[in-house]
Amino acid sequence: MNDDSLIDAESASRVGTVAAAATGEVNRRDWQRWAAAVGDRNPLWFDPEYARANGYREVICPPLFLQYAVLGVTHLDTLRPDGSSGAVSGSLAFPRAPKRMAGGESFTFHLPAYHRDQIEMVRTIESITEKEGRSGRFVLVTWHTIYRNQHGDPVAEASTSMIARP
Amino acid sequence: MTDQQVFFDDVSVGEQIPALSVTVDETQLFFFSAATYNGHRIHYDKKWAHAEGYDDVLVQGPLQAALLARAIGDWIGGRGRLVSFSVENRAVAYHGESLRFGGVITGTRLTDEGAGLVDLDIAGRREDTVLMPGTATVQLPRRGARS
Description:
The complex is a heterodimer.
Chain A: H1 9-12, E1 18-25, H2 28-38, H3 43-46, H4 48-53, E2 99-109, E3 118-133, E4 136-148, E5 154-165
Antiparallel strand pairs in A: 1-3, 2-5, 3-4, 4-5
Chain B: E1 16-23, H1 26-35, H2 46-51, H3 61-76, E2 81-88, E3 98-110, E4 116-126, E5 129-140
Antiparallel strand pairs in B: 1-3, 2-5, 3-4, 4-5
């Protein structure tokens, strides 16, 4: 890294550290509202009899909903001007690359989650690298996130990335 | 339930999964933001979206991902299991556009424990434009096996 880098020393020093940690309870009504908003009527999320007939002890949480079960409370006066909370990124700022966009996300699912499971999420900053793209230089940030249940068993893991541009 | 369960033994490389067609409207955008506790104004504030250079309010990337997962979930049935799911946000989509979510089988394999895994290339599209490419792996039950 040099003075010309888009990555400031403070941000660079945070690679390998925990960007965010949160806990939350998986809630059946919340995931059913999410599924309804997706138009997803999969009976595994709604019908206990169907879920039991397919080897589960109860209805299960849609795998992609798990990430929302740990969202905390954001006070309105702490929102960014664009209405987003910024909580998930661990407040990495990149003053020299302020425009940000979601890159991609990659999940691995290990176990089903049930109503009232207690989920603990730990998100670590995996890498911060500067790259040269067709439209100029940018910063690529990747996080690794693990979700564990109340028994300490990993329920899911995720790798998430963000692009920040000058 | 009387749904048709798809089995590992019956699928092959190159096969398409049934595609899901969805036209997201503003009400669905609002409900998805609410269900995900998302206050980002580009999904409900047209003036804000214009100021950021967009033509209209945007379909949430996570909603596109959830619609892809819905297409997979509908296909794999009650005994199928989503093992991994990976997507990339490549282009924006607006409400009122006809979007399609689907996938194609790229590989089948058995684990050491005998579980049948199926690899897929998946994508959310608007006509020929790929909005969200990705990959997924699902586990399907094997005929005559207990799980």
